[in-house]
């Protein structure tokens, strides 16, 4: 083991410089392998009418919510499932003949 230690100690003391031709070849190979910048024209997509409509409603999620609520409303308006009538009968305690959703101004100003 002493011979091996002496051999390794001698090798670590000897500083070997690579030749200039080797350094030039290594640097040339490294320059060939480096990535070169590729200029690509940025394509900016135009926003279509559907994107403008979605932006009007506050984004695509809001547009999906409004659209699905409209579809469900149309479905219940035309189909009128039997279970829906039973649920509405449970909620309505008495019969309602007329609901005034827009009261006249004199009703709001009347003092009682």
How do the helices and strands line up, and which of them pair or pack?
Layout: H1 2-13, H2 20-33, H3 49-57, H4 60-79, H5 82-91, H6 105-109
Helix pairs in contact: 3-4
Main sheet properties: none
Cα Rg: 42 Å
- The number of helical runs is 6
Rounded to the nearest angstrom, the distance between the terminal CA atoms is 115 Å
Number of strands: 0
Q: Estimate what percentage of residues fall within beta strands.
A: under 5%
Structural class, judged by helices and strands?
Answer: mainly alpha
Question: Stretches where pLDDT falls below 50 for ≥5 residues?
Answer: none
Report the principal-axis shape: elongated
Helix content: 55-70%
Taking all residues together, what is the mean pLDDT?
A: 79
Helix and strand succession? HHHHHH
Overview of the structural elements:
- With 112 residues, this protein is mainly alpha-helical.
- The chain has 6 helices and no strands.
- The longest helix has 20 residues, at 60-79.
- The chain is elongated.
- The relative contact order is 0.03.
- The model has no long low-confidence stretch (mean pLDDT 79).
């Amino acid at each position: 083991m002493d011979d091996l230690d002496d051999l390794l100690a001698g090798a670590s003391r000897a500083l070997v410089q690579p030749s200039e031709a080797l350094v030039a070849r290594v640097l040339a190979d490294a320059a060939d392998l480096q990535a070169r910048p590729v200029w690509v024209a940025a394509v900016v997509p135009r926003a279509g009418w559907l994107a403008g409509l979605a932006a009007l409603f506050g984004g695509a999620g809001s547009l999906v919510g409004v659209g699905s609520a409209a579809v469900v409303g149309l479905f219940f308006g035309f189909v009128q499932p039997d279970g829906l009538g039973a649920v509405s009968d449970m909620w309505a305690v008495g019969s309602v003949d007329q609901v005034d959703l827009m009261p006249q101004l004199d009703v709001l100003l009347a003092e009682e």
